[in-house]
Amino acid sequence: SLALKCAIELRIPDIIHSHGGPITSSQIASSIDSPSSPEISYIERIMRLLGHKNIFAAQHPSDGGEPLYGLTHSSRWLVTGSDSNQLGPVFLVENHPYMVNSWHFLSQCVKEGGSAIEKAFGDAYIDLASKDQQFNKIFNEGMACNAKFLTREILAGYKHGFDSLKSLVDVAGGIGGLISEIVKSYPHIKGINFDLPHVITTAPVYDGVTHVSGDMFHTIPNADALLLKWVLHNWSDEAC
């Protein structure tokens, strides 16, 4: 997982994609955006591992030259700018140190209860995001990426469910990806994207969508209907 995280952070899928075909580790290294020359031996080992795992397609020239690495079905999902077919941001969230290091506290949670991430870092992930701008950006982009996949299914399977609505608020809607796609398909709806202030400050502008910051446990904007996606599971029945 961490080798693949490294490849995503170095934008190796994008580099291979931009070349239009398989390339060598040396060509990958020369295309990495870095203030100093990348360490080619690390890249060779990373690509050899990911090639073995079929994340990239490895080709070994018969003349004994450098192996060539191309995209596979799996790594094409990691190319940026591929609209809804992109999983890189989700992978970076799931492999962020806040998420990975929390697993070291699983046995403690079994014995004592509680949250692993709070035991590891003293805060819930929402509070960590409010204090750490880099994690906030990574987390919001990952959630927006996830929302794109779900949005397609909602719009395809719930074709007439939004016809009678004049307004809709997405509670804990992140940076507004889901509500913006709904409004795009149903332009008569006034969309409201509602989330915590540190999330809303990073939200882009969408036609037909108003971003509102606040706390859903205190108040929620008025609308004909509320939309909650992957929200309530974060809290106990009592809190909800």
TrEMBL record:
<dbReference type="InterPro" id="IPR016461">
    <property type="entry name" value="COMT-like"/>
</dbReference>
<keyword id="KW-0949">S-adenosyl-L-methionine</keyword>
<dbReference type="GO" id="GO:0032259">
    <property type="term" value="P:methylation"/>
</dbReference>
<dbReference type="InterPro" id="IPR029063">
    <property type="entry name" value="SAM-dependent_MTases_sf"/>
</dbReference>
<protein>
    <recommendedName>
        <fullName>O-methyltransferase domain-containing protein</fullName>
    </recommendedName>
</protein>
<dbReference type="Pfam" id="PF00891">
    <property type="entry name" value="Methyltransf_2"/>
</dbReference>
<keyword id="KW-0808">Transferase</keyword>
<dbReference type="GO" id="GO:0008757">
    <property type="term" value="F:S-adenosylmethionine-dependent methyltransferase activity"/>
</dbReference>
<feature type="domain" description="O-methyltransferase C-terminal">
    <location>
        <begin position="103"/>
        <end position="240"/>
    </location>
</feature>
<dbReference type="InterPro" id="IPR036390">
    <property type="entry name" value="WH_DNA-bd_sf"/>
</dbReference>
<dbReference type="Pfam" id="PF08100">
    <property type="entry name" value="Dimerisation"/>
</dbReference>
<keyword id="KW-0489">Methyltransferase</keyword>
<dbReference type="InterPro" id="IPR001077">
    <property type="entry name" value="COMT_C"/>
</dbReference>
<dbReference type="GO" id="GO:0046983">
    <property type="term" value="F:protein dimerization activity"/>
</dbReference>
<dbReference type="GO" id="GO:0008171">
    <property type="term" value="F:O-methyltransferase activity"/>
</dbReference>
<dbReference type="InterPro" id="IPR036388">
    <property type="entry name" value="WH-like_DNA-bd_sf"/>
</dbReference>
<dbReference type="InterPro" id="IPR012967">
    <property type="entry name" value="COMT_dimerisation"/>
</dbReference>
<feature type="domain" description="O-methyltransferase dimerisation">
    <location>
        <begin position="2"/>
        <end position="80"/>
    </location>
</feature>
